[in-house]
Design brief:
The complex is a heterodimer of chains A (206) and B (310). Chain A has 206 residues and is mostly helical. Chain A has one domain. Helix content of chain A is 82%, strand content 0%. Chain A contains eleven helices and no strands. The longest helix of chain A has 28 residues. The radius of gyration of chain B is 23 Å and the shape is globular. With 310 residues, chain B is of the alpha+beta class. Chain B starts with 11 loop residues before the first helix and ends in a 13-residue tail after the last helix. Chain B has a single domain, classed as Oxidoreductase, molybdopterin-binding domain (Sulfite Oxidase, Chain A, domain 2), CATH 3.90.420.10. In chain B, strands 3, 4, 7, 8, 9, 11 and 12 form a seven-stranded mixed beta sheet that branches. Chain B has a five-stranded mixed beta sheet with strand order 2-1-10-5-6. Classes of the chains: A mainly alpha (206), B alpha+beta (310). The interface between A and B is large, with 44 and 49 residues.
Amino acid sequence: MIIRNRFFDHWFPILVNIACLLPIPWLLLDAWQGNLTADPIRASIIRTGKIALVLLVLSLMCTPLNSIFGFKPALRVRRALGDYSFMYVCVHFAIFVSLDYGFNFQIIGTELLKRPYALVGLVTGLLLIPLAITSFPPWQKRLGKNWKRLHRLVYVIVVLDALHFILSVKQGVTEPYLWMIFILFLLVLRISPIRRFLSGYFTFAQ
Amino acid sequence: MIKIDPSDITPKKLYLSRRQFIGSASAVVVGALVLAACKGNLPTAETGTPPSAGASTDELGDPLTSYQDITHYNNYYEFSTNKEAVANLAKDFPTSPWNIEVSGLVKNPQIYSLEDLRKFLPEERIYRLRCVEAWSMVIPWIGFPLHKLLDEVQPTSEAKYVQFTALYDPQSMPGQGSEFLTWPYVEGLRLDEAMHDLTLLATGLYGQPLPNQDGAPIRLVVPWKYGFKNIKAIVKIELVNYQPSTLWMQAGPSEYGFYANVNPNVDHPRWSQATERRIGETGRRKTLMFNGYEEQVASLYAGMDLSKDF
């Protein structure tokens, strides 16, 4: 037990950081080798968006992993997961603005304001900015109780994120709906009576 | 006073190098993506007879999309909603023997085998294909105009529409297991649209038999409409007196209309149709009215409100 804890304390956050950065060389390699479908710009927008969603959902899993399963190391990577998610959101938006729309801000503006998928995506990204900025410990201390309140915004953000995904696909594509269901499930786990009930079952002795 | 533990502070060297890394990484990402986008234009090696076409551009001077891209980027929901997965999933799809029933309000109902259809001499047509998802290709089809077949079966005077039905075979078409769409795939055209000389029944592309992933053995090509009108693996063509209810109209009545004419001024409710990405290019180009076939087909819709009849 002690050995395992030491392993997690030291190596787990490092491994998580490496894993979060790996999609960059992976994307570069695929772009280099022409493995990004016939429409590499769209493919890279979709992929970076997906990675951002996955990381945000993973960061949302950290709290229940600790509170229900007693997996403490999860708390040590929660912030990193959220910040990396924000990084991929930035890459996602940058490709959309530059390679996809060639900095044509007239079309981009119309698209962002008129299209539900784009508008929801924009709002999701903007809401992430204050969270990313205040994710570091000095801010956490400066904001005190308000920090926790502010960061509850992530519950709204992650739902909007899945909605953004749903709005951008045609009928018959089920994946984004599965993400939404999983996200709602993770949010339900945070309701106190449910959390207490489940943690009674799963928490093992420390 | 805020208390900060020394261990909470990221060392300056670390965060500076991190920023530097992110900065240079994003520059490389952009460069690599531009390269990847241009790669689509390179010729690709194929097995068997090489794909060839009678011209290297369409009538507007835009180059043909590569054979590789046309055969590995397929919206074919009978197999998968993943465009890259279709080629592999469709590779063992049985296309022979194959019969097409032509029936309904016609004087000479017929069942054609693929061999029977050879009497309609195949010709090459280079058409733009505009997907409703706002990407496009230029494809050298091989096929024959649908009106040649309709002339032979002779629609009666009651016939107003043509309804197309694709094969329903969940065994060989795994995507038909999805219950979110109503199978089989059904499409329709107004009779005058079906009789238009641009409307093609395609049996090949790039001088070769139609690959399975592109709708073998026979598919519809209506170049001034969004790609989803181009029903693949057709088994039945019926002349009817009502407007057919198509698969996409049932899936999203507010999003997919019966006409589905390419129209940059009428947006899909959830995304813009004003621009499109030509596969193989970076950036976007403006979408043309009726996909650039306005001169030939606009008269079919004279007096119609195309924002209502979308």
